Amino acid sequence: MTARTAWTYEDYAALPDDGKRYEIHDGEPCEMTAPSLLHQIVSGNLNDILRAHVKARRLGIVVYAPLDVILSARPTETTVLQPDLVFVDPGRQSVLKMRGIEGAPTLAVEILSPSTVAIDRGRKRGLYARYGVPYLWFVDPIARDIEALTLRGGEYTVVARASGEQPVDLPPFTDLGLVPASLWPAEFPVE
After folding, report:
1. pTM for the whole thing?
2. For labelling, which of 30, 63, 82, 162 has a CA lying 20 to 30 Å from the CA of 139?
3. Which band of pLDDT confidence, cut at 50, 70 and 90, is reported for residue 190?
């Protein structure tokens, strides 16, 4: 990647298909490392649970990464993120486009990895807030917990932390009955 003053979606889309993942944070390209096996297991399990819940209740759509979420408006389009999962409720269906999501989804889910935790909890959290994503979850496979945040007055507030075997409802969902322990593999290689 060459130095530029501000990268746009057009620059991002022109990157070679080299198997790497990229995002644009306020015009700055960011190369993302590939997710770990644990990350993908947790992501797949959460995707299955959320999709089943949303589909059964006709609440909208859940989409699994990789998917471009273009938060900044045209013509600049200088913020493109790839959350691990997104949920879009029926009131926001207009953000669904062929190239990805253009605008704020209802919920963005970031599954934390040691290599990206600072970016996810810092820079990306700030970008999600700035562009009005109402709900954000941080799922931590190492700590085995979920932190649910709600956007209030332009800032995120932690409204729930969940772990263990007790079913929980995390915003924006009601009657979700998510058992956090169901996300983590029972046995996992330590090396």
Report:
1. 0.92
2. 30
3. low
